[in-house]
Amino acid sequence: MQIGERIAFYRQRRGYTQSQLAGLVGRSTDWLSKIERGERQARRVDVLTELAAALRVSLGDLMGQPVLMEDDDERDDIPAIRDALMAPGRLSRVLFASEEGAPPDLRQAEQLVEFLWADYQRGRIGDVVQQLPRLIQAAQQLEDAAAGRDSDDRRRSWAMSARTHHLAATTLSKVGEADLSWIAAERAMKAADEADDPLVLASAARAATHALLAVGRYDDALSLGETAASWLVPQVEAGDPNALSLLGMLHLRTAVAAARRQDRTSADDLLNQAERSAERLGEDANYWQTGFGPANVELHRLSAGLDLGDMTWVANRGEDVDVSHLPIERQVTHMIDLARALSYLARDDDALALLLSAEQTAPALVRHSAVVRETVKNMHRRAPVTGGSRSSRLLGLAQRCRAVR
């Protein structure tokens, strides 16, 4: 179903008339009727968030998230990640203490999580999903054994767990598993508390802002980002590039949260703060796998503009931004944002070309994106029928994204 059809489905399940639901979100009955029939698109995420709240469902329910995380080899390891996160042993270390075995090698576990972070940034999300269950289990074993280690190894064990669960939260959010992403983000924050390192804590908070954005909790994302940023003050004042990068990314994520609740002033202020951190850093670097720097700030300006409805500005400015030196995940995310803006402006041929290029660069990031799926679905619906079918290139992409059957 399209978003409008899902809104109609949940409205009917709740027993609301179109007039009642429209009134709950401050819109006209005619507006809602056109949304449900697909004659008009609900472009702003804050409006979808209001509709989800009125219907008492999650934002992901209206967005149609997720689809099965299957790649060309038909691998689907999201259930295995769920099993690892929800293992009974995580409920009580007292009850399940007798099940503890020998922990994995700490150094090898640290190397594996950094290797998988690199894979994530290269767009190899299928490989990350496949390896995450084993890595989460290793992190859990290191947590259980942390109390018996010396202080340095104990902190390293908890830091490794925080990094692992941060990666899990970010990856799960990327493929539409918002609820699982929140569980992983909460685990990352708890592990970071034990690691006793402000950089680890700030990095984990970044994961939690991703999870909060995914479920439409924008005020909470803003509050968390601002609180986490305050922990970095001593390191930032000392000019630590790691702290500058993490601070900048927290400001960028909270800027997106502000934009999604249509607070343009706060979004601009946070983007400007991130820009000042980028200027101090002086380059597009990748400390703590942030990919932070002047170019990333510009990409988040475009992303915020997209959420604020500045489609023409995003389309015109986005085409001139050079992202070739950034991590592949950032490049593809930018291409998706730009394609969405072009699609909203009915420049579907340009949008399709961008999405196909993005798919060639990182297939899984495109095919398992809920926003790509909705964009492609709308493009396919309004594409002219030639020879009894839609454009073959568009139809092929729509099928690979599970946008159409």
TrEMBL record:
GO terms for cellular component: cytosol. PROSITE patterns: HTH_CROC1. The keyword Plastid does not apply. The keyword Plastid does not apply. Keywords: DNA-binding. One of its GO terms (molecular function) is DNA-binding transcription factor activity. Residues 7-62 form the HTH cro/C1-type domain. SMART domains: HTH_XRE. It holds the Pfam family HTH_31. PANTHER family: HTH-TYPE TRANSCRIPTIONAL REGULATOR, METHYLPHOSPHONATE SYNTHASE. This is Transcriptional regulator with XRE-family HTH domain. It comes from Pseudonocardia endophytica.
